[in-house]
Amino acid sequence: MAEEMKTNADNEVKSDVEETIEPVFEEEVQTDNGQSDIVAEYEAKLEEANTRILRLQADYDNFRRRTKLEIEANQKYRAQTIITDLLPVLDNFDRALQTQVDQEQAKSLLQGMEMVYRLLIEAIKKEGVEMIDAVGKEFDPHLHQAVMVVEVEDTDSGIVIEEFQKGYKLKDRVIRPSMVKVSQ
Fold first, then answer.
1. DSSP summary character for residue 136
2. Which of 6, 56, 96, 124 has its CB surrounded by the most CB atoms within 10 Å?
3. Roughly how many angstroms between the first and final C-alpha of the chain, as a whole number?
4. CATH fold of 77-183, please?
C-alpha cells in the first residue's frame, strides 16, 4: 500500500509538472515564426559575450605590445643609471687633465690619469654614450643649457661660444645637456 501511495504521488507530481511545462514550451516554440524568445535572448547574450571576448583580446594585444616596448626600452637604456653616476667622475677627470704641471713625477701621474680617462670613455662609448658637440654649433635647447649669453663681434646670434660642462647622450636620449655660453 505504501508503494501504491508513492506511485500515485509520483504520478500526480509528474502530471502537475507536465501541465506546467507543456503550455510554456508550446508558447515559446510558436512565437515569432518558429523562433522562441529564449533563442533570441540567448543569441543576444552570445553576441554580447563575443563582443566582450573581442574587447578582451584587443586589450590583451595592447598589453603585450606595451610590455614588449617597455622591455625593449629597458634593454636599450639599461646603462643609463650607471652612466649618470659616472658623469661626475668624467668631469673630475676633465678638470684634472687640464691642469698644468712642471715636475716630471706629476707629468707621469697625469699621463696615467689620461690613460684611465680614455679607457673610461671607450667603455661608455661601447654602451652607446656619445659626447654632445657644442662649441661652434648652433644653440639647441634640447642638447644645450645656456648659462650665459654674451655679445660677440664677428659671430652670429645663437652660436655656442664656450662649453662649461660636457653633455652626453645615450643612444637617442640626452642624459645631460651641455652647459654653454651663447652669443647674442
1. T
2. 124
3. 118
4. Nucleotide Exchange Factor Grpe; Chain A, domain 2 (2.30.22)
Q: Which residues pair with 170 in a beta bridge?
A: 129, 173
Among 96, 82, 110, 97, which residue's Cα sits nearest to residue 168? Answer: 82
Please count the CA atoms within 13 angstroms of the CA of 111 that sit on its side-chain side.
6
The CA distance from 93 to 119, in Å, is: 12
Written as nine digits, the cell of 8 is 500515485
Cα torsion 111, 113, 115, 119 to 10°: value is -170
Burial grade of 36 (CB within 10 A; 0-12, 13-18, 19 or more): middle
pLDDT tens digits, the chain, 184 residues: what are they? 445 544 554 555 445 545 544 444 444 444 444 567 888 889 999 999 999 999 999 999 999 999 999 999 888 888 888 999 999 999 999 888 888 888 888 888 889 999 999 999 999 999 889 999 999 899 999 999 999 999 888 888 889 999 999 999 998 899 999 999 999 8
How is the chain split into domains, by residue range? 2-73, 77-183
Which residue type is seen at 166? Answer: K
Radius of gyration of the chain (CA): 40
Instruction: Name the residue among 177, 92, 95 with its Cα closest to residue 141.
Output: 177
